[in-house]
Design brief:
Rossmann fold, four-stranded parallel β-sheet, alpha/beta, 5 helices, about 210 residues
Length: about 210
């Protein structure tokens, strides 16, 4: 009995010693764990610094930042760009001298040379456009209606009252279409021309022959 009691006391003492020694060991383990964690953090910090330094060294040079724009309405016109230099013009070849055209100052000849002739009314022997063309062939200037430059008005059948009033207001002389015919073709309007066999009939005389035959 005494032996059992002694063993029990020894076991109890050993258990108490063991229990008392546990906090010191735990503290030592915690201290070692903290030291290990601190060393790991320091190593990670050193690695991060090295990576950042390498990234900065590999980045290109920073572009100059533009000044911040003022708040407000957007810009309407884009910024003006420098105009390119104008190209140097090539040397032009020397101009080739052009000889002036000879001026024909010879006076116009014909039955209506220097005259500005207008027409009004209807001619029974020839259309007005042919009469105007014939005046131009004979050295004058023919118009189908009167104007301020006219120097002669040919009055045919059923003339325009407005044309006659303008002729009177502008003091333009008037003649009948028979008088114009005789002056243009050198024979009266009521007479049929009989050209000789040796004479050459002009285009105008041929037209008048056709009208007379009609």
């Amino acid at each position: 009995m005494e032996t059992f009691l002694r063993l029990f006391i020894i076991a109890d003492i050993a258990y108490m010693v063991f229990m008392l020694s546990r906090p010191a060991a735990a503290r030592r383990r915690m201290k070692r764990e903290k030291e290990r964690q601190a060393a790991e953090r320091q190593a990670k910090a050193e690695t991060r610094k090295q990576e950042q330094a390498a990234a900065k060294a590999s980045k290109p040079a920073p572009v100059a930042a533009q000044p911040p724009r003022k708040r407000g309405r957007p810009r309407k016109n884009p910024p003006k760009q420098a105009k390119p230099a104008a190209p140097v013009p090539a040397e032009r070849p020397a101009p080739v001298p052009v000889e002036p055209k000879p001026v024909n100052n010879a006076p116009k000849t014909g039955a209506f040379a220097g005259e500005v002739v207008a027409f009004t009314g209807t001619c029974p022997k020839m259309e007005r456009r042919y009469m105007v063309s014939h005046v131009n062939r004979l050295g004058g200037q023919g118009y189908e209606t009167i104007n301020t430059r006219c120097t002669l008005l040919v009055v045919a059948e059923n003339p325009g009252r407005n044309q006659l009033d303008k002729a009177a207001r502008w003091h333009v002389p008037t003649i009948t279409w028979e008088e114009w015919w005789e002056r243009a073709f050198n024979y009266p309007a009521t007479t049929k021309p009989k050209p000789a066999e040796d004479d050459i009939v002009s285009l105008d005389q041929f037209a008048s022959l056709i009208h007379n035959a009609a």
